[in-house]
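Blinded run. Sample ID left blank on purpose so nobody reads anything into the name before looking at the predicted structure. Input follows.
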Amino acid sequence: MTNAETLTGRFAATVGAHAVRTALRVGERVLTYAQLAREIADRTPVLTRDLPADRPVPVVADGSPDAVLDLLTILFSTHPLVAIDASSPRSRVAVIREQAEALTLPGCALLAFTSGSTGAPKAVRQGHALWLNQADELAAELGIVPGTAVAQALPIAFGGGLDITVTTLLAGGELHLIDARLDGVADTVATLTRWHADSVHLSPALLRPLLAESGAEAALAAVRLVATCGEALDAADLARLRAVAPHVTFVNRSGSSETGNLAFGVYPPQRPLPEGTVPAGKLAAGKQFRILDDDGSELGPGATGIIELTSPYLSLGYVVDGRCTDFPEVSPGVRRHRLGDRGRIVDGELHLAGRVDDTVKIRGYRVDIGEVTAAARAVPGIGEAVVVARTDLDRTAQDGTPGGTALVAYLAPPAGDSPPSLATVRTTMAAALPAFMVPTHTVLLSALPRNARGKIDRAALPLPPRRPHHVPPRTTTERLLAPMWADLLGVDEVGTDDDLVALGADSLTMVTLLRRVEDAFGVTLPASAPVTHPTLAAMATAIDAAGPERTGGDIVELGEGHTDTRPIVFAFGGAGESALAFAPLARRLSGFRVIGLHAHGLETRGIPDWTVTAAARRGVRHIRAIAPHGPYRLIGHSLGGVIATEAARILTADGETVEHVVYLDTVLSGPLQRRSGHLFTSVDPAEQAPAQPDSVADPDAAGADAGDLWRTRLHLLTAGWWPRPAQQQWSLFHELGRRTAMLHRLRPWAGPATVVLAQDNPDPHEWWDTVAPAHHGIHTVPGDHNGMLRAPHVDHTAAVVTDALTGVRT
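Blinded prediction complete.
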């Protein structure tokens, strides 16, 4: 290797070409290239102490001018530099010194140590070829030429800081060193304002508070380029930069100790911003990239996998237990290295997707933590986010599964900003991610803890607060209230002892919840209720105390009770569903008094009806007791539509008028189709929704476990009579309704009817031409089977039902 192919030789050439130019500004010291070269020459014998060439020399950098000059002296000597940040923990310094002691590293320019954020720091032997190539490429990408004023606000002992230091001094630029850890953000802004740098280089963790600081616009007024490195940056941060300095070009630098430059994400002022995390960017030159699966096979374009690089500009290898290990050579001078990072290449741009060890199994699904972290960073009001997979949490209280892996999201707002509520964070993430990727716990912090190298200190992340032992909702009201809490708070499930405030509800969440309670239950709770009744059980009790009138255990008054003079609509609930499920719909049917009916024995002790006809007769007795004569308007949800039909038939046979029957997502396929296939013979078999096979449709079918069959039969025989927890009771009545449907033989309803189906209803619409031949229309509304009765979809459902009941044909 010739002298010109080393950092020492390249620097000497730069000094010869730019001797009188300013080279370095640190603190109050300003040195030209000639002066800097003399300083280095004077310090070399003192620092190297006649050590053999190629012996590493550690230098502790504390930000002072002397420490900076010591570091540059070794950097441009014949000795490999070991840069140690003065704020590093003693344990890290001890590891570094131990590994660097008594080594001889031919061809090595620096012995770099990784951050150790995912384990113990690794010693990487970086050769001169890597550094010279990196400096040339960075100078070209960042526009650093002779005389360029470069403000370097990254710690000089860190890889990202050394990158800019070497690049600037080999290109003949003016290196202005700033250490925000010593000076503070306000002084950093003042220094940038005074120095009028052409470019500023810093970490995302410093960029965020700098942009929030008074005077940021003046500090960046003369700056043409801002570059960050060291961690992912969110597009929201880039948007803030543009708001403060719209003329600036932004560069997202990505690299590693093993590979040098990886990619450059360049965003001039006119380039549209990406969504979420800013991509790493266009691939570094002189390097061949491959994306591999876990078995080492190359993946196709756009696939996410392990990143592998082949290049003459990679590091030489590691130092492990005092011995040098080399990266494999594929040809003389050309090495290959497989990173511990995952990514994909799309249109020539690298998108990083987290560490290889950041891929975990959650509930049987493979989850890329990088994607979850990106979703967390994208939440409005969040400045920093890290998501970790923890196995040290007692999850029994949450999902009944001891141990296991749980995702925990740690988030912090931008400096000086107030964080959003936990409820807002969770619901925003839940809207952006599949359910299995949503973190089990979310922790808001004022700032994320960082280690001495400025990386997030994962060991210092606190355990999330424990929730109470999970007790499932026990009453009907608790069961209906729990999904509202879960939806507004962004949690999987809510127990009776969960606390609204502890789960992160803010005032807006509380007000929204009170409105939903009023909408769903027809009661108005005081504004103080979320505080005075903060648990699910307490709030349910308050709702019951002020709740709608219930009569006879089978019917629920959803209007104003006996004083309500509006026309009556009788609503039949589905199998295993309380009539309270109609509450949101009833609130929107403003021209009618709605009275709900559900299965006998569901809420009070009683023997259930085992046939549709028996349920219809019982319903008619309640209807005639409330309204002895018609005309009658009937609504039925799910199986309730079939019961409503039979009730209409009974009322008509008694000489009464049934004005309208509205079917709400009554599913004809499945159990009902078992005995009613004769109604659908005119439909093309290819268009029919397949009926369930008997082995699935009938739990008593041959092959089923005998013990399970007898337990199910015993439970069904005691349904409605033997007291059970609400969830078991509702599930049992759902099974009872399913069996009732299997035994029922559908008969067409020839009277006026309207069919309202959820968007996931599987039945061909033509079937209703046979089941309700005089129907006034078949309408599909947003939401699933139950969601069509809840906000926000219930508004659409209510509009269709209102038209049907008022005689409007659509």
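Unblinding after everyone has recorded impressions. The mean pLDDT is 83.
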